[in-house]
TrEMBL record:
SMART domains in the record: PKS_ER (SM00829)
Protein name as catalogued: Enoyl-[acyl-carrier-protein] reductase, mitochondrial
InterPro entries in the cross-refs: ADH-like_N (IPR013154), ER (IPR020843), GroES-like_sf (IPR011032), Mito_Enoyl-ACP_Reductase (IPR051034)
Keywords carried by this UniProt record: Fatty acid biosynthesis, Fatty acid metabolism, Lipid biosynthesis, Lipid metabolism, NADP, Oxidoreductase
Domain of life of the source: Eukaryota
EC number(s) from the headed UniProt entry: 1.3.1.104
Segments forming domain Enoyl reductase (ER): 75-257
């Protein structure tokens, strides 16, 4: 299940939306977050992080050590770096909480950032300003992280142009914010292991997962048929209908799959 962190205008009610305030920045006064294999992590470098005591334009969800996210993640004010020649000033529009974001904070994910770090690996932002040598993006563009570890749970940040990918701004905000992980994983699963042809069939379990729903939609667009396995649940028909609306050909429970 993916929950979105939205811009503050969408932060109403007691739902799972949290402040869209997470990412990574470039100047020494900001978070310079790089993903490292767990085995080569460095100790937290206090000099790489500055939480301003005064009200700042940039708010971020930051963790200084690994542990229970509810305990180690704090809302902090950060300073915004100056926009250098190849830099892009981005205002985050929405950023999800992916299960792997939680694992990263807990410290049990394969790739871990230098600490302190801003949480969040995906999301979508709008370009506010660009440096003089930036050619690939312009103010107003929507951008997503090119790689994991950007730290998207923040309101604004200054990133390098090479750290961003432009996406169309006429797609749903939530789709743009969740484009970078699950749909890409689904696409790679469908493309990298077998040479599938239209009319071929793909079977998957956990088909209601974020990845599974992307598999259904991409497969349908490629003319592939999908057999989607679910765990049984009280509202099975509702979920079955939803997956079929996405393009699923068959939806079966694990129990049905085991029957002759
Ligand atoms: N690049 C990558 O390598 C990459 C990227 C993204 C995701 N992933 C992997 O893809 C998978 C899906 O990720 P996601 O974020 O899309 O997941 P998600 O939306 O959080 O959904 C989790 C899914 O797992 C199912 N599930 C949990 N426990 C299960 C069990 N014991 N038996 C059968 N099904 C079970 C859930 O079914 P219920 O609804 O019945 O609970 C649900 O369909 C995960 O394994 C994740 O690690 C890999």
């Amino acid at each position: 299940m993916t929950y979105l962190a939205a811009s503050s205008s969408e932060l109403t009610g007691g739902n799972m939306w949290v402040c869209g305030a997470l990412c990574r920045a470039r100047a020494p006064a900001q978070l310079g977050q790089r993903l490292l294999p767990e085995s080569s992590r460095r100790r937290p470098d206090a000099a790489s992080f500055s939480a301003s005591a005064e009200a700042s334009r940039v708010r971020a969800l930051v963790y200084g050590h690994h542990g229970d996210p509810a305990k180690v993640v704090e809302l902090k004010n950060l300073e915004l770096a100056a926009v250098g020649g190849s830099d892009v000033h981005v205002k985050m529009l929405a950023a999800p909480i992916n299960p792997s974001d939680i694992n990263m904070i807990q410290g049990n994910y394969g790739l871990l950032p230098q600490l302190p770090a801003v949480g969040g690996n995906e999301g979508v932002g709008q370009v506010i300003a660009v440096g003089s040598s930036v050619t690939g993006v312009k103010p107003g563009d929507w951008v997503i992280p090119a790689n994991p570890g950007l730290g998207t749970w923040r309101t604004e940040a200054v990133f390098g142009e090479e750290e961003l990918i432009t996406v169309p701004s006429d797609i749903p905000l939530q789709s743009a914010a969740t484009l970078g992980v699950n749909p890409c994983t689904a696409y790679r699963m469908l493309m990298d292991f077998e040479r599938l042809q239209p009319g071929d069939s793909v079977i998957q379990n956990a088909s209601n997962s974020g990845v599974g729903q992307a598999v259904i939609q991409i497969a349908a667009a490629l003319g592939l048929r999908t057999i989607n396995v679910l765990r049984d649940r009280p509202d099975l028909q509702k979920l079955t209908d939803r997956l079929k609306n996405l393009g699923a050909d068959h939806v079966v429970t694990e129990e049905e799959l085991r029957k002759a």
